[in-house]
Amino acid sequence: YLKVEPKILAERIEKSTVVRPVINGLTDDDLLFFIKKQLAEREFYYNKADIIIKNENIDLKELAELVSDK
C-alpha cells in the first residue's frame, strides 16, 4: 500500500486526464473531503497490506528497491 496524504492525492487527481465520473465536477474542497472520506472507510483494509510505504516523492526505482527488500 502506497500511503499518500489526501492533499497530494487530490493534486494528482486534478492533474490527471482520466475521466472519473464519481468525482467529476467536484470543487477542490469537495474533492479533498471525498478523498479523506474514502481513505477513512478503506483504511482498515489498506493497513492489512504486507507492505506499507509512506512517501509522496518516491521514484519508481526507489519504490522497486523497497518492495524487493521486503
Topology:
Blueprint: E1 2-3, H1 6-15, H2 28-46, E2 53-54, H3 60-69
Parallel strand pairs: 1-2
Helix pairs in contact: 1-2
Give descriptors for this structure.
single chain; mainly alpha
Give an overview in words:
The protein is mainly alpha-helical and 70 residues long. Helix content is 56%, strand content 6%. The protein is built from 3 helices and 2 strands. It has helices at 6-15, 28-46, 60-69, and strands at residues 2-3, 53-54. A two-stranded parallel ribbon has the order 1-2. Helix 1 (6-15) packs across helix 2 (28-46). The relative contact order is 0.18. The mean pLDDT is 90.
In whole angstroms, the N-to-C terminal distance is: 13 Å
Main sheet properties:
2 strands, parallel
Principal-axis shape = globular
Sheet-strand content, in percent, reads: 5-15%
Order of helices and strands: EHHEH
In the sheet with the most strands, the strands line up as 1-2
Number of distinct beta strands: 2
**Total helical elements:** 3
